[in-house]
Amino acid sequence: MSLDNILTNWSRYRKGAEEGGFHEYEHQWGMVVDLNKCIGCNACSVACYAENNLPVVGEKRCGKNQAMNWLRIERYWDEPDLEPYKATPTANVDAWIEGNPPAKKTELKPSMPSSYLPGLLELEGKSFTERVGFDGIKSEFQDFGASFLPMMCQQCHAATCEPVCPVAATYHTPDGLNAQVYNRCIGSRYCSNNCPYRLRYFNFWSYYEDAWPEPLHMQLNPDLSVRDKGVMEKCTFCIQRIRVAKDKAKMEDRKVIDGEFSTACVQTCPTGALVFGDMQDPDSHVSKLWSYHQVERGKTKQSKENKELRGYRILEGLNTDPSVLYLERVREV
Amino acid sequence: MKYVNEKDINEEIKWAQINTDILQSLQNPRKAYWIAIAVCLAMLSCAVVAEVYQYQTGLGVADLNRPHMWGLYIATFIFWIGMSHSGTLLSAILHIIHADWRKPIYRFAEAMTTFSLMTAGFFPMLHLGRMWNLYWVIPYVSDRGIWPNFRSPLVWDAFAITTYLTSSALFLFIGMIPDLAICRDNVTGWRRKLYTVLSLGWQGTDRQWRHFRKTYMLMACFLIPLAVSVHSIVSSDFAMSIMPGWHVTSFPPYFVAGALYSGCAAIITLFILLRYFFRLEEYMTVALMEKTCKLTFAIAMVWTYLNLVEFGATWYGHDPVAKEVLISKFVGPFAPYFWAMMFFGSVLPFALAFEKLRRHMATMMVVSILLNVGMWLERWMIVGPTLSHAYAPEAWNFMWPSIVQWAIVFGSFGWFGLLFLIFVKVFPCVSMYEVKEMVFHRRREAHAEVAEKFHRRAADVQQATGRPSVEGA
Fold first, then answer.
1. How confident is the model at residue A136 (pLDDT cuts 50, 70, 90)?
2. Is residue B9 in a domain?
3. Where are the alpha helices (DSSP H) in chain A?
4. B443-447 long-range contacts, Cβ below 8 Å, gap at least 24?
5. Is A173's pLDDT higher than 50?
6. In this predicted structure, what is the pLDDT of residue A121?
């Protein structure tokens, strides 16, 4: 620990802060999610659990919102003014099909977790079906109009989680990824509070103690760690796979080829709703989709020539500059 | 209006009497004191048990969850930091504007500042997932060249709070030196040894007084901007974030006003307790109580105003998400606590506007505690609703804090009480030398000729002995 070493490091740190992160990216990994193709099967989520050593936390902790689903499928019910569902009380479906839409309109409200606003947003029962699952959990759901939204870390280029971490445990890599250093994390959880997507998951317990009872521990992925209590974690775009691919390309003295590897969720998606790739490579599938849909990085509002193009980024108005492009679901109305 | 000419303090009181009255508070404690200590220890042990359990098991036992990453810990942290501000208000701000009525009551307020900071400091530590790595927030020179992230408001917090704690403890100590010398001259045993060391050889010479005054004034001037900046920085934990309901420009003044408010309410509570238990009616007079109440009322109105500004700005602003959070405060799951906060924070202080109520100690005791309940709720209403109702609808939910969180919050009051109880028995909780100054000035104003006869400068030659006076040392 020479004085020289300290001064060099300090000036490097200062310089980095002034210039605001990396300027020359080696890659910019990005994703495209086609909601037209998503069937809400949750296979991506399961693949993520298997690939990234995510603990299955059990019903009780899941009910307390302490689950670790890095990739979650959000389910939304249709808004009440979407046409076919507007005038369709569940009980009169048959009548409607026969061409006699009932005169009385029943309002449908978007579903919310029943723990939230219990008295206020009481669902009116008529339009929602109450069912008791095999495990005794009572659930309510609509018979029509569910939409699915797979949400994984958006790998924002202007990530709100990065500047607030007191120990710089989360930072931007030259790969254009928003990295989380488990070993550096002290668990202040500020990053999660400042993530507008709420996509950061905290190890509230030592989940590993009961998540993989023997012999299940044998299926853990050796390419990455099993996290202990007190650290934040989130989707990494399967950074372990990225590393392997980059190393292999380097050894073979070539660039990473598009489609050479993909993340666990992309690999698993049965309908091909997810596409992963390097956005710096103009020939990659991802880049082509982004440019086809006229969505550009670094903007808070896209100016599309063709308004029919489906591409959008979630909450991009907040200037988080996410790396995941969503393609709107189109339905007949 | 019949009390308009009421005196703040009896100016006929003899200086020796002042010493006697205040020093009796340091005498061996009575039974009630030990009971109070036991109660505080019991409360503290609740927190210790809860914290050990949480440390061993993980933060899951606090029932924190994904949107609710911060719960009562951070709310109570802001509460205690806020509590610390009024000591500085009384001791430094009122000092530089020469409001001498602060003199009999500032010492315990300043102690309150230091102790509430010592309480507040625990919360950001014990809310960490990996508390044992806390020191990574400090910019120590590391072999690996790793520094904390200076852009993070949490790092600013760490700097601001440690600076404020050091300065306010130093200010408390410096202001106490002449009194410690009086104690030293009046006690025996271990106390004498302690005060001899602490009084730093104070003799009360002109030279010492000159240095003392300068230092005290300098510290006061240093502490005022510090106090304001500390709570502004605490507010930037929220204001610097992107979350609706947190990302509010008016947060820094709002936090400072809230801080002074809860601090003043706590001063009223402790004022009444000390006045009653130490029989300090001569010093902590009803007139001073009235002045403190008026000050609290004024600050309460400032707080109310800033609160309404925040609501108004959100309501008429063009941020639908922030507005939704505001509406969820009004009618959502937090509504009972929100309206309780509005009642205790903005309606109840009108009790302080009535002379009859202000002068009734039992009423004021209840009111001041309820004001602080309101201020604690306010902090919870800052942290809770935004987390429960932010951008991502998937994560909308309501968290009721678990027994572990409540135990730690409860225990923090025990810890504060314990520190305060020890303080009032070891150190004079009323500033003797400053009460003398106050009496001196009031006497001179009232009867100039008597004052001329009785008071000389320390260096004046006494007629009887021919030696310089050491009175008042």
1. low
2. no
3. 3-19, 43-51, 59-63, 83-86, 93-97, 161-164, 190-193, 208-211, 239-251, 264-268, 285-292
4. B443/B11, B443/B12, B446/B11
5. yes
6. 36
Whole-number pLDDT of residue A303: 85
Residue among A65, A163, A187 whose CB faces B66 most closely = A65
CA distance B104 to B283: 6
For residue B147, the chain A residues in CB contact (below 8 A) are 9-10, 13, 168
In a domain, B466, yes or no: no
Range(s) of the domain holding residue B98: 15-454
- Residue A130: how many CA atoms within 13 Å on its side-chain side? 8
B247: exposed, middle or buried (Cβ count in 10 Å: 0-12, 13-18, 19+): middle
- B396–A231 C-beta distance less than 8 A: no
Residue A282 falls inside a structural domain: yes
CATH number of the domain at B394, please: 1.20.1630.10
The percentage of residues in chain A with a pLDDT greater than 90, rounded to a whole number, is 53
- Count up the domains in chain B and report the number: 1
B141/A1 touch (CB, cutoff 8 Å), yes or no: yes
- Cα(A171)–Cα(A182) distance, integer angstroms: 12
Chain B CB contacts of A190 below 8 Å: 69, 152-154, 237, 241
- A91 in a structural domain: no
Q: How many CB pairs under 8 A join A and B?
A: 176
CB-based contact B237 A190, cutoff 8 Å = yes
**Nearest residue of A to residue B158, measured between CA atoms:** A166
Does residue B334 belong to any structural domain of this protein? yes
Residue A181: which domain range? 22-76+152-327
- Chain B interface disruption, residue of A171, A189, A210, most B CBs within 10 A: A189
Q: How confident is the model over B334-381, as pLDDT tens digits?
A: 999 999 999 999 999 999 998 888 888 899 999 999 999 999 999 999
Is B394 in contact with A151 (Cβ distance < 8 A)? yes
Query: What is residue A85's predicted lDDT score, i.e. its pLDDT?
Result: 44
Nearest-Cα distance to chain A for B96, in Å, is 36
Chain B residues with beta carbon closer than 8 angstroms to that of A168: 146-149, 152
- Are the CB atoms for B268 and B411 separated by under 8 Å? no
Q: What pLDDT does residue B37 have?
A: 96
Between chains, do B398 and A166 touch, taking CB under 8 Å as contact?
A: no
Please judge whether A163 and B151 are an interchain contact, meaning their C-beta atoms are less than 8 angstroms apart.
Answer: yes
Question: Is the CB of A6 less than 8 angstroms away from the CB of B145?
Answer: yes
Task: Tell me whether residue A175 is in a domain.
Answer: yes
Q: DSSP character for B29?
A: P
Handedness of CA A232, A235, A237, A243 (dihedral sign): positive
Among residues A29, A49, A65, A103, the alpha carbon closest in space to that of A264 is found at: A49
Whether A198 sits inside 8 A of B133 (CB atoms) is no
Query: Which of A166, A199, A315 has its CB closest to that of B148?
Result: A166
- With an 8 Å Cβ cutoff, are B243 and A193 in contact? yes
Task: Determine what percent of chain B is predicted with pLDDT higher than 90.
Answer: 59
Spatial contact of A276 and A266, defined as CB atoms under 8 Å apart: yes
What is residue A305's DSSP assignment? S
* C-alpha triplet B11, B17, B18: angle, nearest 5°: 70
Name the percent of chain A lying above pLDDT 70: 75
> Is B8 inside any structural domain?
no
Residue A316 in domain: yes
Contact state of B145 with A166 under an 8 Å Cβ cutoff: no
User: Which residues, in sequence order, are CB contacts of B326 under 8 Å at separation 6+?
Assistant: B245, B311, B314, B315
CA distance A100 to chain B (A): 35
Q: Identity (one letter) of the amino acid at A181?
A: V
| Number of domains chain A contains | 1
